[in-house]
Design a protein that fits this description.
With about 110 residues, this protein is α+β, with helices and mostly antiparallel strands. Helices cover about 25% and strands about 35% of the residues. It has one domain: 2-Layer Sandwich (Alpha-Beta Plaits). Keywords: Monooxygenase, Oxidoreductase.
Length: about 110
């Protein structure tokens, strides 16, 4: 077990999934994301999922971030048959993807006075 920072284990895993949505396919992508997020929310070890919409005009780069209690919990979900079947249709709505995974070693929270 890793050290604790602000009450959270440093063994926690953060995943950043950058998605280049195909032009004109935002609605289909959002519908598919809704299906995936409901399933992943029930997955053991999953903490939170966030979807980020691009703010730059003309950008089609969306970002999905998630946090997991351990890397093992994430990889067990990612390698499951259920996950593979669920995300296969996502390819229809995106041009490219990139996944970054990292351990949370420090976290800065809002300081309330």
């Amino acid at each position: 077990m890793g050290t604790v920072q602000n009450g959270h284990s440093a063994d926690r895993l953060s995943v950043v999934f950058a998605v280049q949505v195909t032009e004109g396919c935002e609605e289909g992508f959002l519908e598919m994301y809704d299906q995936i997020r409901k399933s992943v929310a029930r997955t053991p070890g999953h903490i939170i999922d966030r979807l980020g919409e691009p703010v730059e005009e003309g950008s089609r780069q969306w970002v999905i971030t998630s946090e997991w209690e351990t890397p093992e919990a994430f990889f067990a979900w990612q390698q499951s048959d259920e996950h593979q079947e669920m995300v296969a249709p996502l390819r229809k709505w995106v041009d490219s993807t990139q996944s970054l995974r990292f351990r949370v070693v420090k976290e800065t929270a809002e300081v309330k006075s």
